[in-house]
């Protein structure tokens, strides 16, 4: 699995609903509806640095597979997260949400599920294509 690269978001499904369920501030919901971030992933073995760039802010998150790390959300909330690799997928899990990233052809696809969000949407949750 090689996630190295610069990934430009070009498609997002259920973004607004996901952010509302995740209790994101209204300002963040409005901004994210207008802005498609660029994600830069640098992978060195089991160590990763993910940088999310928007015109408003840049967030950097570093982690190692299998080790707990601290993540800061766009609105400043901090939470603990552990990422594992399973079948070529990166699975990030906290007590509130799960994110699964995988390479599909030339795209990286991420599906995020926040608590009961999966049960209130027709598909698997918030889906991003990069």
Q: How would you characterize this protein structure?
A:
The chain is mainly beta and 130 residues long. The chain has a single domain (5-129), classed as Calycin beta-barrel core domain (Lipocalin). The chain contains 2 helices and 11 strands, in the order E-E-H-H-E-E-E-E-E-E-E-E-E. The strands form 2 sheets. Strands 2-11-10-9-8-7-6 form a 7-stranded antiparallel β-sheet. The chain has a 4-stranded antiparallel β-sheet with strand order 1-3-4-5, with no helix packed on it. The chain is globular, with a radius of gyration of 14 Å.
Salient structural properties:
130 residues; Lipocalin; globular
What would a concise description of this structure say?
The chain has 2 helices and 11 strands, in the order E-E-H-H-E-E-E-E-E-E-E-E-E. The protein has 130 residues and is mainly β. The chain is 12% helix and 52% strand.
